[in-house]
Write a structure and sequence with these properties.
heterodimer, A: alpha+beta, 4-stranded antiparallel β-sheet, B: alpha/beta, 10 strands, globular
């Protein structure tokens, strides 16, 4: 194709967008709104995913033993826990160390409170800190540790702790965020596509004389199609650049603000640079697909004659 | 040049527009298609530039069998056919020169050639002074001349004219006929459907009469033959 021809197609496409002012505006708004919502959910999902990963990597199992469990039994248990499939590491924490941890955690205020519990007066149990190789296995491993009590009298394991429920809840939340986001976005994307194909139809209708003459003097179908293709792509492009700009600007301010506030809550946001690439890429891609698809639907129907 | 072999055309409503047309038009001929309204003249014309496809039969244009030609080759056949209508069909937002150039632009001719050729054909139809006027500023005869310029700008070997004088007064009609004769004289085949008795009888050419979808008369230097 000649450069001048390509330039002509782009000129015609631009002209149509301007000429169909209100319909273009409606189409662009529809794409913008749907992509804005998609983008919001995307950002939310990315951050929740990161949060889940963070929490998962911190999940560990605490096995508290009964007070006065004999040392040889402690050693047997250590080995048995270590041989459970999925266990990455088992660390024995004697009650003295446990007390130190507690003192550290409570700080100055706790000093008085914990006075006099050293040595034989230590009321804390010995314990194990168990890390697993795959965070998803935590519940299963914990269950197996509990079963080590069976057949032993008295049962040596007092309690098995892990962030029971927290991980599951987070998984459920991400799942619902994804589903709701997807449903909303698909619905809105169809609305946008419908609006665009209508806009293009109006363009075609306004230019049907022109198209009839084009066909009569021997323009190829591709030649006729091009400007509409450009128009649709343009609507999609503008419709995706707006929400990308708004979302990234908003997110940048959020990241800024979180340095002071969220930092305390130990939540780490996905860095802007990393998120910008993913969000822009996805929104731009979907915007263009919606725009071009919408225009091709209309043109296809028309050119079949 | 143009040949139809046993061409039938029925429309979905069951009406038969054409019933077994056999005809041959040679290079450089000037042919009138006459007959009552609804006899099938328009269908006959549309078949040639393939706006309509026959229900049965073969149509050859410049050696191409239209029925065997692939869909995407059709535009290239049309570039060899210029079409003129009763209602001119100009684009109101384009100037005279732009309307003519448009036909070359859409077949992607180089710009330089477009400019040169556009002025050439505007001279031929004697509208070079109105090149930058808009169709609405022109008389009917002038508009039809623009349409003719557009039809010939790509050097087609055939001109299909569907009642080109239908909207024009007698003097202007004669002017248009002289122009078409000149184009024919320069080597372009012309097929013209008309209801204009004066024209047919004064500019004697081959006459093909169609009635009820059948060719009832085909005479060299014929007469119009109807009373209207």
């Amino acid at each position: 194709m000649r450069i001048s021809t390509l330039a002509r197609h782009f000129r015609e496409g631009f002209k149509s967008v301007v000429r169909n002012g209100w319909m273009s505006f409606a189409s662009i708004s529809a794409i913008s709104i749907s992509l804005f919502i998609l983008g919001t959910f995307l950002i939310l999902t990315l951050n929740v995913n990161q949060l889940v990963e963070q929490i998962e990597s911190q999940v560990e199992i605490r096995v508290h033993l009964e007070v006065n469990t004999p040392e040889d039994q402690v050693r047997t248990l250590h080995n048995e826990i270590g041989s459970i499939p999925g266990v990455a590491q088992v660390e024995f924490i004697p009650k003295e160390e446990g007390l130190e941890f507690m003192k550290e955690a409570l700080g100055d205020e706790g000093k008085e409170l914990l006075e006099g519990y050293e040595g034989d007066n230590n009321p804390l149990p010995d314990s194990f800190k168990v890390t697993v190789d795959e965070p998803r296995n935590v519940a299963a491993v914990a269950e197996q540790i509990k079963q080590l009590n069976e057949g032993r009298v008295p049962p040596p394991i007092f309690k098995v702790y892990y962030g029971e429920g927290t991980v599951e809840t987070l998984f459920t939340i991400t799942k619902y965020v994804r589903i709701i986001g997807l449903v909303l976005v698909v619905g809105l994307a169809f609305t946008a596509m419908f609006l665009i194909s209508n806009t293009i139809r109006i363009t075609i209708f306004a230019r049907r004389r022109e198209i009839a003459i084009m066909k009569l003097v021997g323009a190829t179908n591709n030649f006729i199609r091009w400007p509409f293709f450009v128009e649709g792509a343009l609507l999609g492009l503008i419709g995706s650049i707006i929400p990308i700009a708004v979302l990234l600007f908003g997110y940048a301010s959020l990241v800024d603000a979180s340095r002071f506030n969220l930092g305390l809550m130990l939540i780490q946001l996905v860095p802007l640079e990393e998120l910008a690439v993913v969000v822009s890429g996805i929104l731009l891609g979907i915007g263009l697909v919606i725009g071009i698809w919408g225009s091709l639907i209309s043109v296809h129907k028309f050119l079949k004659i | 040049m143009i040949e139809m072999q046993d061409v039938w055309k029925s429309y979905p409503d069951g009406s038969h527009a054409l019933r077994g047309i056999n005809v041959q038009v040679d290079r450089n001929e000037f042919v009138y298609i006459v007959g009552p309204s609804g006899a099938g003249k328009s269908t006959f014309m549309k078949l040639i530039y393939r706006e309509v496809r026959p229900t049965r039969g073969q149509i050859f244009v410049n050696g191409f069998n239209l029925e065997k030609l692939k869909q995407r080759k059709i535009p290239y056949v049309r570039r060899n056919i210029g079409v003129i209508f009763q209602d001119f069909r100009l684009l109101p937002t384009l100037t005279v020169a732009e309307n003519v150039a448009f036909a070359m632009e859409v077949i992607e001719a180089p710009r330089k050639i477009i400019r040169k050729r556009t002025m050439e054909v505007l001279e031929l139809v004697r509208l070079q002074d109105k090149a930058s006027a808009y169709p609405s500023q022109l008389s009917g005869g002038e508009q039809q001349r623009v349409a003719i310029a557009r039809a010939i700008v790509n050097n087609p070997s055939v001109i299909i004219a569907d009642e080109p004088t239908g909207n024009l007064d007698p003097d202007t009609s004669i002017e248009i006929m002289k122009l078409l004769e000149e184009i024919n004289f320069r080597g372009t085949t012309i097929i013209m459907a008309t209801h204009n008795k004066e024209i047919v009888n004064n500019f004697r050419k081959r006459v093909i009469a169609i009635e009820n979808g059948v060719i009832v008369r085909d005479e060299m230097r014929g007469e119009y033959g109807y009373e209207d």
